[in-house]
Hints:
By secondary structure, this protein is an alpha/beta fold.
Amino acid sequence: MKITDITIRHLKMKLKAPFTTSFGTFTDKDFLLLEARDEDGTIGWGESVAFHSPWYNEETLQTNWHMLEDFLIPLLLNKEMNHPDEVSELFAPIRKNNMAKSTIEGAVWDIYAQQTNQSLASALGGKKEKIEVGISIGIQKSIDDLVALVDEYVNEGYKRIKVKIKPGWDVEVMRTLREKFPDVAIMADANSAYRLEDAELLKKLDGFNLTMIEQPLASDDIIDHAKLQKMLKTPICLDESIHSVEDARKAVELGSTKIINIKIGRVGGLTEARKIHDYCKANGIPVWCGGMLESGIGRAHNVALTTLSNFILPGDTASSNRYWEKDIILPEVVAENGYIQVPQTAGIGYEVDLDAVDEFTVAKKHYK
Ligand code: OSB
Ligand code: MG
């Protein structure tokens, strides 16, 4: 493999419905797509999951573009490689900026899978033919609105319902959901909205038999998460705190987490994501695949990763049509009764709809 050309595009896609977390509300999704061409003409695609503003982590669409243009693309272009695992070795001298690194690495994995004539899932070692998925629901205007949405998604067959919580939108919300949906797998995601001093409040959630509580405390704090876990029956799942297999090991050894949410971009790519998966599997920690409101390209990478055996819990990779009027892949990702069929064709397994990509592109630059 030798990447000779790269195109970066900034896309802007309107979300079907605004998505609200403890931080704020999204109405549009601005993100980067990366198209890489190998010397043999094979084209691979990667998506950056960095948002327009640095609320989820420190990266943004613009910092990703800067890292790609000034550091990562120059390191990768025209380098002879045998396997996508070499990309993270090449990028190792650059600190963090995991979402930027993952954007290129994903495209290289797509090229490698096509060149070895296998699906991205098989190239990663995944065996599942279908994956089980849940859905993540943002903060709503009222509990009634939330109940109506949950009802809709449960009827669509989603295997697990995740709801965002924040101070003032937590105990009563979860109590009502548990009353209305006694048999549904329900979990809460706080995106770091609480502090250890809130432990008494968080302990009330133990009464609702939640599958887990995701990232209740600060993104850089695995010490207080360990203290909190000792006080809670509900398993803690870390999202924002885990950037590498080393982070995963430390959090597991400290007892800060019983479940890990793996997001490809947050950990710097598929190679590191697989290492975390393997570490967790060897240590009895179930994992699931998180989401970042991806377009079809990032979504396809998530589907492939989820075919690995220790992705035991349903992830956040819902149908394309839960986010978009029109996605940029053909066919779109479809969850039927809570299952997505894993495509078996070579590469990411979905065709990129170039007309749709053009329609949503607001800026574009070519590198060679
Ligand atoms: O914390 O998992 C999160 C969306 C944006 C940023 C962070 C998160 C989320 C979600 C939605 O929960 C996941 C999705 O549906 O893609
Ligand atoms: Mg989360």
